Amino acid sequence: MLQDLFDEDREDGDFSYFPSNTSSKSIIEKPISPRNETDLCGLQNQGATCYLNALIQTLLFTPDFREPLFSLTAKDLNLLSNPNDSSQTSSSGSTLKVRKIIVELQKLFAEMLLLNQQACSSIRLTDSFGWQSNETIDHQDVHELNRLLFDAIQKSLQGTKQSNLIRSCYEGSTINYTQCKQCQKIFKRIEDYQDLPLVVQDSPNLHTSLANMFTYREQLTGDNQYRCSSCDNRLCDADKWAKISKLPPILTLPLQRFIYDIKTGNRLKKTTRYEFPFDIDLKEFCEDSVIDTNYELFAVVIHKGTCYSGHYYGYIKDIDHIGTWIRPPPPPSSAAKSSNKQKPSNTNSNNNRNPTKNDSTETDEEISKKIELIKTILLSCDDWFTIDDLLKTYRENTTVPWSRTRNSNGTFTKFLRNHPDIFHIDDKRVRLIEQMDIDENQMDYESSQIDKTDINSQENEHWFCFDDSNVTCVTQQHIQRHYGLSDCAYMLFYRLKNNRNKNESTMDCSNTLYSVPQWLIEEISEKNKILEEKREIYEKHQNQLSVIIYPSEWFEVIDNCRLNLNSNNQVLFPDQYGEHKFDKRTKTNEFISNLKDIYGKDSHFYIAKKLRSGQLHIISELKNVSDDNITLDKNDLSNNPNIIVFKYPSILPDTVIQGEEFEPIMLNIVYGFPDAHIHASRLQTIRHVSKNTTLFELKEILFRDFYQYDDPQILRQVRMGKLNLEEKNNRKSRREYKIDEEKQTLAQLYLHDGDTLGIDNKNSFVPSWKDASSNIANTGKNHLSLTIKNNIDTINTKPMTCSCWNTTLIGEVKLMAIQAFGLSLDPSMCRLYIDDDSDLADIPLYDHQTVDTINFRENNTNLCLKSGQALKENDLMICVQSDREPNLLELIVDYSMTLTDLWNLIKQKLNMDENDNEYHLCEMKSTLINDGSPLNDFDQTLLVNGLTNGAQLTIRSGSIAPRNHIRLKIFKIINQYYKPNEAIHTRPKFEIIELTQRFELPITSSFNALRERIAKLIDFKVPSNYTSDTQPLEFIRLYDIDDNQPTTIVHEPVLTTLKQAKVRDLCSYAFEILPHPEYLSKKDLLLNIVYLKDNTTNYFQYKFELLLPLRDNAIAKYDYLEQHILSHLKSLLNNDIIKITLARYFSDRGQWMIIDPSATTKKTKITNVNLKHEPYKLTDFTVIGVLEGENLTSEDFETEFDQIKRKDIDVEKEQKRMNREKNRTDNDRNQQNGSSGRRRSPQNTMRINVDDFDN
């Protein structure tokens, strides 16, 4: 029956309606997808953890590692009670450390084997490493991780039965032999290894790299001689070689792809062709005592990218047949790839050029010579060439510079790109296409030589590609392609052939269950149940189809294409009608059959589309289909979820036009004829026209309505245009349609609901018509159909529908809803909202606004009635979010209220202290990730502050200044001292205290206003020996503050405002009370003068401040400075000084510089040297030393402090140099070892934290 298609919660036989407080568009989070056809699980990338994912997948598919790891019990891992606890307590009461890394590895492996989801998360594992979130977004090296992880696992297994797991699986040993040619004695040194890094450069394959390590003998001669202990530690010629003395079950071979280019000083990635076999016999590289030497490849880690960044993924062989392997299609051949590369050349031939006299056009022969030279250079190298290096080599091999022909060829890179059939460019590298084709053809040839028997044998060798979350099936051919691609092999993992399970046994799911600890099986089984429930709920939600079923007697047909409610009275949906949910997967024929069981076998069901006006347009009749498997999501109902039921004997009139192509468009019509105002009362300014109507047909209809007759001759003079009357500044106010466009339909002209068309004759279509005709358009009345839900009464939730004019007030619609729902409710205590999932759904509608002002979306004319105070014309609804209340605080206020009054009202509602100003308001907007700017225009209204109806505010801690005001922190200088006390020529240290009061000033205030406020606060009085016009602010000196110390003096107090000085809120300033008034203009200098050195201590004895006025003299000249210093010294010393020497002190380097303008190297007159410029750079508080006499040197000004200062600086420089040298040496060593990790900052260093389990 039909009830099976509706909500399962329905108890009676009627259709169930949605609860009033439930949205039909509620969002359910999509659960993680189940595994794909491979039945294997990937790993989620946390940001840049692809290297970790590739390694973890390799370890999982290594039975020699996985099975012993699973054999560890909860007791072995110190999981005595709860496996999720990080620490447990033993029976003796002592706390046992949980072996977190092993526990998380077990959990992750178990989830990857048993959890039915596409990809698992490795977050818990990286958390057990002690990694922070930023460490998962750093690009790291998989080889480095392999070593760190094995070391961490080894330490974590100490004291367990698997303490030797890493050694037993991965550890082997080599013997290094050195034979002295002098005494013929052989020296041996045994070294253990967990991996054997192989050099890729100059090695075509794996066999060559191994031979270079274990078969070739190195001659130790010359500067590389061997110091033989048997020859009295003398340097002797010797031979050196190595052999493998022990092979592990799992052989790890990292390939050193990254090299250091001595010429360029850069690290490069070697992507030359490098082959590796799937089976290898290592007997020739081993000692005779090694018996098992046959290995098979089972994992390859691929690196894509450069040596500084890239991506890792892995090819892994499913030894135990855990997954489901389906033979994938073969990789594309090089022939197909080459055909894609053969693009038409963009090179301009001479025939396509139009050279001028000044054009340096080249002939085809000259271009061919350039190409041949570049090809010769590229063929000399079997690897990629950087474009910069290629251009450099090209210049070295030709006498014609490239810039000479640049006008005709463009840049060097552009020239290469213009020949895509010859050159292949990858980022900043270039290679010949024929070189790549040779590599690929060779690989294709090798692949074609695989016997059919080998192909059949691959059926038992299941290879998969693990690329983070994605798992796909591959064959050996896919792996062989990486012999010569830029996505090249980076690590190879081989395993002993005879190390398989007995009888080549494979591992099925049941065996997996037995190997996984029982507590993990139970935990993952519960997770799978939860996942299945979530997927079922999500799938059901995704397949829900909300359909509104209407009775046919509600409607009347208008214009043969629209169905409008035939009553202006509000109507509740009768039983079995209204909004219902169906399952999209329901078969159409079954659905129709159930509908007929409810509404009658002779009933007809029509699918309708809701128009912008709320009216309906018939799309099609819902009929039985020939294919019984067609479901609801395959017919028109999925896009137009409205059904009109015509019960027998009522039928749909044959005159009603059906079909989406006949959908009516609501257009505003503006008549621009001269006498349009006369006929305004009878003209329809809103038209519903089928969208397949041509523009000419519409013009005929409008012409006939206006003139009441047909006249083809006058009709030819009539034209139409699209109008945009609401566009600002009346720009592009009309677009006249051409005669050819009149043959197109309204849909072809891209006309939509609400567009405005104008019609007039050619002689009257002038700009002056717009004002009058637009007023006519605005007076057009139109019917709207509204559906209103009852969100007040939770029992009677049936919606109602009504038809009204677009000019109907919302208050009237609300009264109709209250009456239809039978609510005994004061209209002032409820309000209407738009019923959709947009941001407007939370904003109540005003009672005084009309229906046409509602911003409906997607032809949705649904409203809902909720409780709440109705909004008057001047009201605003403000919602406030605060940590003091769990729910939003809703306030209805007048928009003329000031922000201060609103803030006080909020404090009152939230029981906050009225004098608590350590908070402020911010507006929350959905378009912003963070809160908007603080609201601080306290004396202005809410509208001036930009608040509108429905605004959401949040309370944030911290006080703010009013608009166009700033607050300043003021400190008082109470003391200054020197270290040491004798070094008065150095920068003093200040003791400052902060004033408790903060100064709030307009940003247009000057610094004089700040000085005045400070003087008033400290109640400063002008000394009696000054004139009455002297102001207290003149005794206040202001300093900028940096690092809690006063620095520079604030100049130009009158002309500079706080805004011009770019002073920000809560900036800090310090002030000092002077014994005399001070006037500092913008260019004045305030210098510290020291003089008279003590012969005993060699320090300066006296110091004074010297104001060097530069108002009229823009240049700080030496004579001017010397004159001022001499004048002050004479008044202080009371004797005549004939000649002095001046020196400038540089405190940052402890040096003095004699001020001698005659020694300047610039071609400037001595009298015009500006001491404010290099090399003296005089600024405020610059220390000038003064000594009596001539021809003095800087050593005469030095003090003991200066010598100590310079020594400290030299020590610091040397330490920095040594650190740089050490870092450079470490980087060179890493580059030579092929390490791919960039070590430019300490935070990039990879680490794994492990607890101590030795005890």
From TrEMBL:
Q: Which Pfam families match?
A: UBL_USP40, UCH
UniProt xrefs under InterPro entries: Papain-like_cys_pep_sf (IPR038765), Peptidase_C19 (IPR050164), Peptidase_C19_UCH (IPR001394), UBL_USP40 (IPR057763), USP (IPR028889), USP_CS (IPR018200)
Annotated region Disordered: where? 327-364, 1210-1255
Q: Where is the composition biased (Polar residues)?
A: 1230-1247
In this chain, composition skew of type Basic and acidic residues spans 1210-1229
Residue ranges annotated for the USP domain, each copy included: 41-497
Q: Which domain of life is it from?
A: Eukaryota
Instruction: Kindly list the biological process annotations in GO that this record carries.
Output: protein deubiquitination
Q: Name one GO cellular component term.
A: nucleus
Q: What is this protein called?
A: USP domain-containing protein
Biological classification of the source: Eukaryota, Metazoa, Spiralia, Gnathifera, Rotifera
